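Retry 2 of 3 after timeout on previous attempt. Resubmitting structure tokens to design endpoint.
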């Protein structure tokens, strides 16, 4: 004992030590608390906010990953979900979009979600149920899955003009990514007609992309196309999820941004099928920025827009040299391993980013299809 009657050189009295143990067990009212889940989510979203749109020719698109090497990633997501339920079951229901009950159609997407959609019950796509086992099973189809905001006068445009521009922007998305004739490998003439013919770099791109596809001049950067000699789109439904937004851009332009994910169920064309009706899915997400310019300030044509920038990510669309077509793989054809980083093609909680291919351009791994 020391001179004060405490053991081991401590200056804490017995009464103080007993009070410390009691407060440690019962908790101290003023003790600092861990940040809430909501606060952590907000912090993460602020870190992930995209940079300003890149110029049309300054962006280099990511490689297109093959699909399905996600057993461990899926297992981790499931473990996190189970832990969250155990800790706070009441909060978990607020994580996912309130859509009228499990299995029902999702409400329209009005803003970027905070997290990826939950895992669906296991199931393989079939000719009768091509979206089985996919979050897209609960999505709308065609332009119904693309949310268009209420129009308000912006920049040089009146409310009525903004509405027309938003409708035309949606028409461009449909003509470039949903038109059955274009999906069968046709030329996207209706979509191209909406692009400002005086925008020289884009017109040069369009003139080259369909004639001699390359990494830089690939029509898949803007348009979804399959080679009908080898691939057939199953049915007449393409599932979509996304939204359009707008703001005033440079020189008073109406700047329209679109962020949409398209899910295409496909099978081999008759010549290649050999009687095999296996169905695969190709998933394409595009972020596109368009300017509806003031003709008093920019050389343009009435009813056309200038393309500002694009970003695209494709899953199971092919990883070889560009051919101008999406090239899906099936079953055993799919890579036994994918060396690139894992990505969830249904996760819309962040922007489309680069870095989805490995150091040597190898395909990434999709956690689900």
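Retry 2 succeeded. Sequence:
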């Amino acid at each position: 004992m020391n001179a004060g009657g405490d053991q081991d050189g401590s200056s804490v009295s017995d009464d103080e030590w007993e009070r410390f143990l009691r407060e440690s067990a019962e908790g101290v009212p003023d003790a600092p608390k861990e940040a809430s889940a909501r606060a952590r989510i907000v912090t993460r979203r602020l870190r992930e906010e995209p940079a300003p749109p890149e110029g049309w020719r300054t962006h280099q698109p990511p490689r297109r990953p093959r699909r399905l090497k996600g057993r461990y990633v899926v297992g981790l997501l499931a473990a996190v979900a189970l832990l969250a339920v155990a800790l706070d079951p009441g909060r978990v229901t607020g994580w996912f979009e309130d859509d009228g009950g499990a299995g029902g159609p999702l409400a329209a997407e009005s803003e970027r979600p905070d997290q990826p959609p939950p895992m669906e019950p296991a199931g393989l796509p079939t000719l009768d149920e091509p979206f089985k086992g996919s979050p897209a099973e609960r999505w709308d189809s065609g332009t119904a899955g693309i949310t268009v905001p209420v129009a308000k006068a912006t920049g040089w445009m009146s409310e009525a003009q903004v509405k027309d521009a938003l409708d035309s922007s949606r028409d461009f998305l449909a003509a470039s990514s949903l038109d059955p004739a274009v999906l069968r490998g046709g030329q996207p003439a209706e979509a191209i007609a909406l692009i400002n013919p005086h925008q020289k770099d884009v017109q040069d791109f369009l003139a080259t992309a369909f004639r001699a596809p390359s990494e830089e001049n690939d029509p898949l950067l803007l348009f979804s196309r399959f080679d009908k000699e080898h691939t057939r789109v199953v049915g007449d439904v393409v599932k979509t999820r996304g939204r359009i937004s707008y703001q005033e851009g440079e020189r008073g332009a109406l700047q329209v941004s679109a962020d949409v994910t398209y899910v295409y169920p496909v099978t081999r064309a008759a010549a290649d099928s050999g009687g095999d009706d296996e169905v695969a899915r190709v998933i394409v997400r595009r972020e596109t920025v368009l300017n509806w310019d003031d003709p008093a300030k920019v050389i343009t044509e009435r009813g056309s827009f200038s393309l500002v920038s694009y970003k695209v990510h494709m899953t199971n669309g092919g990883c070889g040299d560009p051919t101008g077509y999406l090239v899906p793989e099936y079953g055993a054809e799919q890579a036994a391993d994918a060396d690139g980083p894992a990505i969830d093609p249904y996760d819309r909680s962040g922007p489309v980013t680069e870095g989805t291919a490995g150091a040597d351009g190898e395909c990434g791994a999709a956690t689900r299809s």
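Attempt log closed. The chain has a mean pLDDT of 78.
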